[in-house]
UniProtKB/TrEMBL annotation:
Alphabetic keyword roster: Membrane, Transmembrane, Transmembrane helix
Residue spans crossing the bilayer: 20-42, 62-81, 93-115, 130-148, 155-175, 187-206, 218-236, 256-272, 279-301, 313-336, 348-369, 389-415
Name the record gives this protein: Permease
InterPro entries hit by this protein: Cyt_c_oxase-like_su1_sf (IPR036927)
Organism per entry: Magnetospirillum gryphiswaldense (strain DSM 6361 / JCM 21280 / NBRC 15271 / MSR-1)
Amino acid sequence: MPAKSMHLQQNHLRLLELRLWLLVSVAALAVAGGLALGLALARTPGVQDWLPSGPDFFHKALVTHVVFSFQVWLLAMLAAASAQGRAAPLPGLVGVGLTITGCALLLVVTLAGWGEASLNNYVPVLDHPLYLAGLGLIATGIACALFRPGNDIPAMAFAYAVALICFAIAVLRLPSDLDAAFRYERLFWGGGHVLQFVNTGLIMWAWRRLAGGGSTPLSRLAFALLAAGTVAALVIELRLDPLGLSWRQAYTDMLWYLLPLPPILVAADMLWHRRRVGGIAGLALWASWLVFVLGGMAGFALGAGDTRTPSHYHAMIGGVNVALMGVIHVVLLPALGRAAPSLRLVRWQIGLYGGGQLLHALGFYLAGLAGVARKTAGVEQGLDSVFKLVSMGVVGLGGTIAVLGGVLFVGHVLARLVRHD
């Protein structure tokens, strides 16, 4: 085959891979939204008895909702990031197939009502062999995309590899006779913390793409520090008892002391070079910074069991999400020749989602300051003051606005991706 024809074929396959990863990532949000509707129905008297596994469907759907809205969405976007540049497309296409198969298994187990729900941190699961196999296929599919020649995001690939190693070590070291809920909590605690380095690398990558700037010495240092920080997880896994409190606390300390600096360096580098970013890219970048900074500040001033904790993680995840929404519209869809014809709708998507997440997280934090307990609802919240009522009202208002922006984003992007050329 002539070199020119081979080059054209490689480019075609790269674009196909990118399109498929975007479809997987945005479809994951759509599935998560559908499961959220199922969660609402599961709490409706009379309706819940018609759902798969009856009243137990709520917790099972909640598990899979979390997996699709966080793990699948973010990891598929990580794979899409790896599809840029000189990456060989065939391993990525294999990865897409494995990931889709894994997602299908998760849905089959959930809708069939199989397995007990374990609402552990980071990667909640249904305790069923097919569900675990689905998670394994997704993890392998993402690995195919990241561990290939020409990958331009080596720091995130390294961090992802460390996360997989932590999961593997936990499987080997944890006793087999543990209670299922406790076992899954410990199994996913270490690697789940390392995945936060991966997600932080993803937002750093998104900021750079939105700013349109090339690599600089400071940005390269930031990504190197991000990757190096994950090595601490290997030390923790190999030197501490996975059943002990010191093992658990060591991972919390790892995030506190090693994770904040890399994104600060990237943001400082962009400000130092006075990159002026306008339009959709500027809106997404500043919205992401505002929400992400709020989440970071909340993380250093958490309470004991109150709603300041969900304020922290909702803002951190929201900051990542709004940056990725911007990258999809500004960089990835145009690369596919599928850019949105109307920027007004895109502004509404990013503005509603970013603004809604900001209000949502701020309301949670204020409610936590007043002593509202997390993971409570109704009368259990103890909303016995005007301040508590207003704060939780802001939570609901912000959440509603963010959901509206998210629905507009998912529907619009899916329509752009599935349309015929």
